[in-house]
Molybdenum cofactor guanylyltransferase
Amino acid sequence: MIDKSNLTAVILAGGRSSRMNGEDKGLILLNGKPMIAYVATVVKEKAGHLFISANRNIEQYQEYGKVITDALDDFQGPLAGILQALQSANTDYLLIFPCDVPLLNKVAVDQLLNSMRQDMDIGVADDGIRMHPTMMIVKTKLAQNLVDFLASGQRKLGLWVEQNNFLKIDLSAYPEIFTNLNTPEDFNKCLTLNTSFD
């Protein structure tokens, strides 16, 4: 397990939420709590430092961690938030999750951390069918590598992962953690599930 003192976590909440009619996804209430609260509760126990990557509603997000904003213009996607976190972290590892996975649990996070190998630069969650690159652990030494990738005009997170020394980490035993809420329909479906939210 990576030592907590050598791990910074970032929760990605900087998108435009275009599929959620522009509402700030991380702050939408789910069973009376903002969605980001579920993710923050889990990851803050695992990391020595917690960043929230956000570009609006800064004061509200500060309740959950230190807010960092994109230095790049024009909403360049999750990689902009990841780059800011890599450049801001003072640890060797960065743990990354999106704000819209309220069923994330500590056991799955432990599995991700325990499975990361020292000879790898990125460990990315896999559900048994495909990778989920917004759920991963990255060595912070890749900051300049990501600067160069973005400077080349690329924006796809999965492509950046695949161009590096990465490891797929099988989290198929925890399918619920991959339930991410991108649309009002996803949100309503989640509320109708017989699911207990901590």
User: Anything to note?
Assistant: Strands lie at 7-12, 29-30, 33-34, 49-53, 66-68, 93-98, 122-126, 131-139, 166-170.
